[in-house]
Amino acid sequence: MNSLDGGLSRLLDLLTARPNANELLKTLETDLLAKFKLSNAIIFTLDSHNISKEIYSNNLTLEEKNKGGFNSVLASILPTSNLASLTDSKLGRSSDDDFLIIPISNGKSLKGFILLELDCAQLSAENLSLIEIMGKVCAFYLLSELPELKQSNSTEKIASQLQFSARQLQIINGFVEGKTNHELAEDLGFSVSTVRHETMDIFRLLGASDRKEAAKIAQERSIV
Question: Considering the chain, what percentage of its residues have pLDDT values greater than 90?
């Protein structure tokens, strides 16, 4: 059995114990990826302008010059304009160092990424594939566990909702549930004409042509 196969099993066992980010990164370094000389593992988040911010590192004494090196790696591998389009893992190289970048995404937008500094010269295609799988498992776990990433999702939803009134949000929820104008009017205590008027405003704000499309757009944008 490939040693990384066992590493994946150990990773899954570790995640059941709900480790914090630093514990997870330290385990990657000292156990799961030690064979490949993992020297640094860093978690970055992205703000609304695609500016990256380091939030966790397995090496708490990382020198500023090394941080600058990581920033130059990111700039060369992932220009700011391309960050939002990162959908899969990416290999990069700077001087004598190799990096594997793994996106943290909620399926709708990029929230951040994990950067691993590895000795890629020792990596076979099979090993690289397994490390990518482990990285993606970590990314999925972090998306649900890190307060910074949760806050990002929450802020996004609030920002999306601000353009709608409380009444309109109730009606949009009704679209998602498949309710008719008469059902909405009865449930919400509005007249049918009021529901129709609000529906037209909702279509305009969402750029939708019908209720089904409005419901789909609203869910895609995390409005409801």
Answer: 10
